[in-house]
Amino acid sequence: MALIHWNSVFDPFRDLRSLQDRMNRLFDASAGGALGVERGTSAFPPLDIRHDADAVYLTAELPGVAPDSLDLSITGDTLTLKGERPAPGIDENRYHRRERRFGHFAREVGLPERVDAEKIEATLSEGVLRVRLPKAESAKPRKINIGKA
């Protein structure tokens, strides 16, 4: 009788995890990416967030979206981006493949730092939204002077 050790070579749950991963991808795709936003799977619009000592910067790709169809708002440390990307006037039944998304969209993004909502600046140029969110004074690093005793 052979004794099989459970290690990285023999994993009795490997096939089950693989099936679960495939099912998750299937449900993420059918929900329009809403379930996979945090994992970065097919969320629209795709965006990048970075920060430095002074501000948080968001860049989002929004080709074909007009500035007046966008709504950008902030509540606490959550930035919300809503809008509509109009569909081209082409007969729906004539597509062989359709991967671009059209219609209403919404993204909520947790920010890495507290920001000053009164000083947020946003521009949309050539299909790219750029948002500068200055950090709140309480979120900026401060040097603490140490006195002699």
Question: Mean pLDDT, rounded to whole units?
Answer: 80
The amount of beta strand, in percent, is 25-35%
Q: Which shape, going by the Cα principal axes?
A: flat
- CATH topology grouping of the largest domain: Immunoglobulin-like
Class from helix and strand fractions: mainly beta
Describe the 3D structure.
The protein starts with 13 loop residues before the first helix and ends in a 15-residue tail after the last strand. A hairpin with a 3-residue loop joins strand 1 (47-51) and strand 2 (55-61). The longest helix has 17 residues, at 14-30. The strands form 2 sheets. A 4-stranded antiparallel sheet has the order 1-2-7-6, with no helix packed on it. The protein has 149 residues and is mostly beta strands. It has one helix at 14-30, and strands spanning 47-51, 55-61, 70-75, 78-85, 103-110, 121-125, 128-134. The protein folds into 2 domains: 15-40, no CATH class; 45-87 and 102-139, Immunoglobulin-like (Sandwich), CATH 2.60.40. The chain has 1 helix and 7 strands. Residues 32-41 have low confidence and may be disordered.
